[in-house]
Amino acid sequence: MFTSQKIKCAIYARVSTDRQGESIENQVSQCQEYISRLDGTYDTSDCLIYRDVAVSGYYTSVFDRAEMKQAIRDARENKFKLLVFKEVSRVGRDKQENPAIIGMFEQYGVRVVAINDNYDSLNKDNITFDILSVLSEQESKKISSRVSSARKQKARRGQWGGEPPLGYFVNPENKKLEIDEEWSPIPRLIFDLYVNHGLGTFKVAEHLNNQGIQTKNGFMWSREAINRIIRNQAYIGSVIHGTRRNKLKREYEENGKMSKKKIQLRISKDEWQIVENAHDAIVDKHVFYQAQQILLSKSHHRTPRRAYHPLTGILFCGECGQGMVCQKRSHKGKTYRYYICKTYHKYGRNKCSQANINADELEGTIVKTIRRKLETIPSELFSVTVNHEFEMQRLNQEIVSRTNKQEKLKKEQLDFFKQRELFEEKTYQNEMINKKRQIEALNDEIEVSRRQLENLNTETEKSAKYVHLLKDFCRLELTEERMRKVLHELINKVTFNKEHVTIEYFFDFEGCSLKDA
């Protein structure tokens, strides 16, 4: 006797980092209860369950979650045909990603149900899902704002949030820092070595490691770890809040795939919230501020890492292809500069036979060559391409106008959604589809205008840059630093081979047009 195979079911549950109080098992239980009430065509006895624990729905991409990725693989292999979750926010709190992930499951023939939001993909109500995703993202931002506000209030009371600094522990009753007598001698020793004994951060770390003193986590000391302790105002009794702010960064690949990550932005010191004398100090304030002065003086006298020789970074050896660097040599009180191949400099003449080249002579030859080429370019070329201000202004006005219309339609769509019970289903669907089409049409128009504006901006910026370079090169003299900047803006690559020099430009002097760098 033939019996049809029952439809396999699956459950997805997630507990976010900002809602740890909500049990993941409660979500699973609610979904199991929903599945148990389905008709006999569904297999309600053995559901696949996917759990993502302590994963943010806003900052963590749907496609970066272990259990969600497994669910996608299983859907592709037809291991289930019904996916149930408590609500749209459990999938995520990103209005751009949520529709994409649901569309992926539907592509594999999976029916998707969000219980609390009354969403069922069988009804093809994608507009409702889009709006629910927007509302979910807005709620996530509200939660983040509330959490940030709570942390701010905690800091104002002098309470500590997070891992305590070395030498302290957090009192569980008042949430304030208290001195840990076992570990507090280490930060005192660090400040003493740095301020009173003149050791640098590297030497302080070396001293601690030689003494067998480890960090609280059992690691060896580094100059970075020493630096963090010396800069930490907690050691003079202060609690600081608001030094950084989280921000979501979306990145789009050429194939259209989006990835996202949480980045931290440094906040200006003027906006920091500092509560002094919030707890007992381990280090005397006078010693602490002496340490800050030493740090500041060393940073001021540190030699810049970036070389300012004009051709460093764009000059390459024609023999081995390696870059050429500038060296200095003094003879009879006079200093000479010359460019030398990196391969020869490291391994000797038997690895590369490229001869050294006098820096002043090579730079002078290149500057003269560029000046001759620039003088042949008609100035009208630049003035014509720069004069786009009127067109750019018109495009900006179009973008603003269409964006305002789009926002108005979105608000109307959201208001209509909130009052959907007042309308017949067909009327509701038609109105929502109409507004969605209008929004999409405006979006296409805005995108076209933005691309046109971007092209004009790029052309204008490039043209303005070359007008600026032309004026610079007309000067009789250029400082070494200014020459470097101008050469790097004009030249892509210089190749030196024996006595022959080849220059690759960012500008097509023959055709008098701008190349793409």
Summarize the topology:
Layout: E1 7-15, H1 24-36, E2 42-53, H2 66-76, E3 82-85, H3 88-91, H4 97-107, E4 111-114, E5 119-120, H5 126-156, E6 168-170, E7 177-179, H6 185-195, H7 201-210, H8 223-231, E8 239-241, E9 244-252, E10 258-266, E11 273-275, H9 285-301, E12 315-317, E13 324-331, E14 334-341, H10 342-347, E15 357-358, H11 359-375, H12 380-386, H13 389-418, H14 425-474, H15 480-490, E16 491-497, E17 500-505, E18 507-508, E19 513-514
Parallel strand pairs: 1-2, 1-3, 3-4, 12-16
Antiparallel strand pairs: 4-5, 6-7, 8-11, 9-10, 13-14, 14-15, 16-17, 18-19
Helix pairs in contact: 6-9, 7-8, 12-14, 13-14
Provide tags for this entry.
517 residues, alpha/beta, Rossmann fold, Hect, E3 ligase catalytic domain fold, 5-stranded mixed beta sheet, 3-stranded mixed beta sheet, 15 helices, 46% helix, extended, disordered C terminus, DNA_bind_recombinase_dom, DNA recombination, coiled coil, Recombinase family protein
Could you describe the 3D structure shown?
The structure is a single chain. This protein is an alpha/beta fold and about 525 residues long. The chain folds into four domains: about 5-140, Rossmann fold, CATH 3.40.50; about 170-300, Alpha-Beta Complex (Hect, E3 ligase catalytic domain fold), CATH 3.90.1750.20; about 310-375 and about 475-515, no CATH class; about 380-465. It contains 15 helices and 19 strands. It has helices at about 25-35, 65-75, 90, 95-105, 125-155, 185-195, 200-210, 225-230, 285-300, 340-345, 360-375, 380-385, 390-420, 425-475, 480-490, and strands spanning about 5-15, 40-55, 80-85, 110-115, 120, 170, 175-180, 240, 245-250, 260-265, 275, 315, 325-330, 335-340, 355-360, 490-495, 500-505, 505-510, 515. It has a five-stranded mixed beta sheet with strand order 2-1-3-4-5, sandwiched between helices. The chain has a three-stranded mixed beta sheet with strand order 12-16-17. A hairpin with a 2-residue loop joins strand 13 (about 325-330) and strand 14 (about 335-340). The radius of gyration is 33 Å and the shape is extended. The relative contact order is 0.06. Residues about 250-255, about 300-305 and about 515 have low confidence and may be disordered. Pfam families: Recombinase, Resolvase, Zn_ribbon_recom. One of its GO terms (molecular function) is DNA strand exchange activity. This is Recombinase family protein. Keywords: Coiled coil, DNA integration, DNA recombination, DNA-binding.
